[in-house]
Amino acid sequence: MRLIDYFRKGLERDPERLAFVDDHTSFTYRDIDTMACRIASAMPECHPTEGIRAAVYSPNDPRAFACIMGIFYAGAVWVPANARNTVAVNGHFLSMTGCEVLFYHSSFESEVAGLRSRVPTITSLICIDKAGPDGIPSLEEFMRFGDGLPQTVPDDPDRIVTIFPTGGTTGLSKGAPWSHRTWEAMIDAFWLNMPNEEPSVHLVAGPMTHAAGGLALMMVPKAATNIVLSKADPELIMQAIERHGITHVYLPPTVLYMMLAHPNVRNYDYASLKYFVLAAAPIAPEKLKEAMDVFGPVMCQSYGQAEAPMFMTFLSTQDLVEAGSNEVGRRYASCGRAAMNVRLEIMAEDGTLLPTGERGEIVARGSLVFPGYYGNPAATEEVSRFGWHHTGDVGYRDEHGFVYIVDRKKDMIVTGGFNVFSAEIEQVLLSHSAVRECAVIGVPDDKWGEAVKAVIEVKPGQTVDGKELIALVKAELGGVYAPKTIDVWDELPRSGNGKVLKRDIREAFWKGHKRAV
User: Fold this and answer.
1) DSSP 3-state of 294
2) Stated pTM of the model
3) What residues does 510 pair with on adjacent strands?
């Protein structure tokens, strides 16, 4: 399957169904297809489209999705730009991938000026909503160059159609190439794990020119309607679920935590929801239990990364509902079982595959796994040791095949000769009713080498005693895991995807020190 064929399935199913709706306008599947075909047929006017790199840089706007579809119709390569990232981060990624064509929204005019200075390969710009300065055409003007008849996209399953940025929480992003085969594996896993024959209504709350656009693309084969929000504001999300009868929501745990902490969270009707999917980071078990109580038996979780997107594992609502009474608590801490098209194992440092219950690095094989980092053979060799993709996550698998992530390898704390997994401490801290978000790191210590430290963000209007939290961790995990100190910050630093940036927090305490790795 070519990627564009998935969009065409939705078009063929119901061309007049609303594809995208925001506060200002709406577009049917036929509308999006017409725009995308005109964009694709106009692109050869600025570039031969075979393999060129093109990005879309815009706030959430249905026309941005039409541009992405136009890129695929043209046989070009989509290089996603995250509207919430800084110019420096986006500039690095677009320069590294050699982006040549940039569709952008006029509200980002000043940012685009910065990108142009950082990305010399960009030679064609198109402004989505109006004509730009210096003769930059509007999207409407640009589409007049095309006849609406794009060239035929080659049917090659290994053809690269997307270069997706890696998370970037430990440094600047690398590029993860996705082929038609990668997308096919991800979309197949999506519908296998979350079957739904009824009309779907998907809430687009994250950046549409990045991950949320990919999620919308997975929804379109069955002609889902996508309700577009300008931002991932907790109350706007809750209002939209009730107002539009949302069936599918995909959010990082950080946004869920903000929703659960909102005073109005139980004042809305969530009966339409079928799947509330958590992705991008592990979820604290107590928060997942609370979410099941608030939103109903619709909560589920996927585990993936740019190198093996979205569905390495899946934890379904049924997995949670069917857990026996003796394993309910443990099941809520799992990220699910390996997807049908992924082989997932736990590996020791020497490449030995470990048995049930033993901790090691999570590794994977299968059609979902990317072929290697774009233009970075050294990093590809490192992440592909022993013929497996190395996730960088430490975890174990239980006797039923459920996988549990205990930490990122780089986040593990070595204190007094003991290995301490920060994610396990964070789960305990997040079980406290006053804690909205937290990060646990190791900080320099003359006695222990590294001392366990927690930095927390409390819920609005609440306070918490650090000694109480330390005692909570000590009671649950033991003295070695108990933080020596706890700091309260007004707000933790986050990436454009909503992930807490431990790197930034750690640097605040390690400045002038060299941390062992």
Assistant:
1) helix
2) 0.86
3) none
Does the residue 212 lie in any domain? no
Q: Which amino acid is at 122?
A: I
Alpha-carbon span 417 to 408, nearest angstrom: 18
CB-based contact 66:32 (threshold 8 Å): yes
Q: Which of 374, 408, 442 is the last residue before a domain boundary?
A: 408
Determine which helix (DSSP H) or strand (DSSP E) holds 429, and give its type and residue range. helix 422-430
**Could you tell me which residues come within 8 angstroms of residue 267 by beta carbon, excluding any fewer than 6 positions away?**
none
- The two counts, helices (H) then strands (E), for the chain are 17, 24
517 residues of the chain, pLDDT tens digit each: 899 999 999 999 999 999 999 999 999 999 999 999 999 999 987 666 678 999 999 999 999 999 999 999 999 999 999 998 889 889 999 999 999 999 999 999 999 999 999 999 999 999 999 999 989 999 999 999 989 888 888 899 999 999 999 965 445 789 999 999 999 999 999 999 999 888 899 999 999 999 899 999 999 999 999 999 998 899 999 999 999 999 999 998 889 989 999 999 999 999 999 999 998 888 888 889 999 999 999 999 999 999 999 999 999 999 998 876 666 668 898 999 999 999 999 999 999 999 999 999 999 999 999 999 999 999 999 999 999 999 999 999 999 999 999 888 888 888 877 778 888 888 889 989 899 999 999 988 877 788 999 999 999 888 888 999 999 999 988 888 899 999 999 999 887 667 788 888 888 887 654 434 3
Q: Residue 448 corresponds to which tokens in the numbers above? A: 């222990």
Q: What is the DSSP letter of 494?
A: B
Q: 77: which residues sit within 8 A by CB, 6+ positions away?
A: 51, 52, 53, 54, 71, 160, 161, 162, 163
Alpha-carbon gap, residue 386 to 458, rounded angstroms: 43
**Terminal alpha carbon distance of the chain:** 43
Rounded to whole angstroms, the Cα distance separating 215 from 190 reads 10
Name the token pair of 269: 């009707």
| Environment class of 365 (CB within 10 Å of its CB; exposed 0-12, middle 13-18, buried 19+) | middle
The dihedral sign for the CA sequence 341, 345, 349, 350: negative
Residue 200: inside a domain: no
Same domain, 350 and 481: no
The DSSP call for residue 138 is B
Of the residues 390, 408, 426, which one is the last residue of a structural domain?
408
Asked whether residue 85 falls in the same domain as residue 121, the answer is yes
